[in-house]
Amino acid sequence: MKMLEAKNIEKSFDKLEVLKNISFDVNKGEVLAIIGPSGSGKSTLLRCITQLETIDKGEIVICGDTLVKTVDGKAVYASKEDRHKINMHYGLVFQNFNLFPHMSVMKNITAAPINVLGKSKEEAEATAKSLLKKMGLADRGDYYPYQLSGGQQQRVSIARAMALNPELLLFDEPTSALDPELTGEILKVIRSLAEEKMTMIVVTHEMAFAKNVADRVIFMADGVIVESGTPQEVFENTKNPRTLEFLAKYNEDREG
Predict the structure, then answer these.
(1) Where on the phi/psi map is residue 145: left (φ > 0), alpha (ψ -120 to 50), or beta?
(2) Which residue among 21, 102, 164, 249 sits deepest, i.e. has the most Cβ atoms within 10 Å of its Cβ?
């Protein structure tokens, strides 16, 4: 079953083309890693999928529901009511946590289930406690974001996204704001979700993670999908000059 279908996505900011005819899909239980240099359009693509940006042309279908399609050369979005329903299909984890600083960890996680899904406080808190335990943060429910490390804040952010029980989880560079030690914490959590067959799209600069955890890898550059395939195809057997250039630069920076 396809959890996401993106077809011929185009997006420009003024005259700058950021996404150029992007097409791909994601199957249920699949982990898709999107890699590429800064400015390649990776994060913009996620923002278009999650309605934080609008596309100019193309089609996006999430869990069988059409978010947007092209009619007479222009993108036409679903009704506000349908977009809200589609919102419930996915969760998004930002690179900079985006936790509410004035709320405790528990309230950060329970706010949306109570206010959006209409769950009781007791039910929402039971779910939150279960998720915090899963994240190794069972004793942090009463803490505030400023009392947590970056890695702990990001784990709370993941728990908050999962509290809405999404069918698709999207990560936008989830480790870019963290030092190497804390990065390992987050990658471990995402790896455990992959083992549970959570459907995920992960925009990442962690090549080892993409190689070892993803089922499929997309390499983007200059607003286009340069290459798509299994980790082995992209990392070990690519013949594409642009992919080879990117991987060589990555290895050079890591060794340097």
Answers:
(1) alpha
(2) 164
